[in-house]
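[09:14] KT: can someone run the structure on this one? pasting the chain below
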Amino acid sequence: MAEVELKLEIDAAGFERLASSDLLGEPDETIEQISNYFDTSDNSFFAEGFTLRIRKVGTSRIQTVKATGPSASIFARSEWETPVTGDSPVIDHTSPLMNEFGDRANDVQPKFKIANERRIWNVTENGSNIEVALDRGSVRSVARETPILELELELKNGKSKDLFALARKIEGIVPLRFGVLSKAERGFHLLEAERTVVKATPVELDRSDCACQAFQAIAHSCFRQFRLNETILRSRKNEESLHQARVAIRRLRSAITLFKPMLQDNEAKRLSAEFRWLAGVLGEARNLDVLLPKSRAGELRDSLTEKRAAAYENVIEALDSSRARALMLDFNEWLHCGDYLTHAATRDVRERPAAEFAGEALDKARKKLKKHGQDLSGVDDEHRHEARKDAKKLRYAAEFFRSLFADKRSERRYKRFVGAMEALQDDLGALNDLATGPDVLEGHGLRGLAGADELIIHADKAKLIRSAQDALDDVIDAKRFWR
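[09:31] RB: done, structure tokens below
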């Protein structure tokens, strides 16, 4: 198992509390770092998964190129360090940037600066040697600046599980949140418009991956999407980030279901149930977000607005709760160190080629949707909702495994398949809104207010069902991109 480095975010009060606690004591070393990042005018290095920086510590300067994107696998290593004497990059034939970008690699310009004070402790935890780095500083571009307050735990030797044992001790002193952005990513985000939402990004899998590697990459992608939207949600309380945070949890729970043959430990079930709790809290606010724009000015709209504000407060309270923080810590420890990684009974499944596992998982999800969706007009709302959940799981599975089937024929089939899936999900989503709207209003004591019936009876249900059935049939008839 590869070593794990934990990046943890803390607030200003927590920083001071941790720095002065008896847990770590006096740092073994404190260093001042100034890092200047460079890229082409259109940031093509970063877009292709490379970063270029010159870091100054004292009087020494080190130039570092990192490859973290899809191109990283073609190189024997992912990081190149070179001593330099000045503040301008030196790019020659030994640099991967020259190999990847040719003459464009020399046309670089400064993008942002990171100034950081790093306190370092060397800690022994259950016999494992761990470097603890506490960072405080800022990332600054020409127009914007953002603070850095984070903690990094790096395993030098020993067991990955001991990183989490130490993290739990720290959590007992200060609240922790998992960081999913590197300092470089923070800098490049400063160069963009401020984000109000983060949608799922493609999961890059390799056909040489085994099923276990695929699951970890997918789960990490889902968790990253959740954390990025959680950060936005806590500061903005906007409906887009709330919706995508909820989508991220659904994607993660779908991944756990897809990989169920490999995840036979009880912890997988417990974690999925805890994420269902959190998704439910977000869902209460989401339901009001769906109804509010459809309401007219008046008592009903005012009441919905008040209920929505209260629901968002409940969301923030849940996200800040010890239960949610424990869930994030438990999940990450399980993902990297869980018993599912060594369970003898599932070894063959874990080691299966990812593409082989994906093909069977997609066939199974498609078969389930076909079974539950063959007669949408002849079943009740509850059964149509089951078909809607099946459709989501199939869509998520298709997105998870897309990169494993990347030839031209598969790409064409994937586009047609996803187009049909989008139409199906739109129709099933509209039907779900019709079904749940009355219950949402009833649950908040608003069913009797003027305009309530108009709010929830706004579409031709029979027409939507026919449209959904046509879309579902198109999905089933579409050629499978994974074959």
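[09:33] KT: thanks! The chain has a mean pLDDT of 94.
[09:34] RB: yep, looked fine to me
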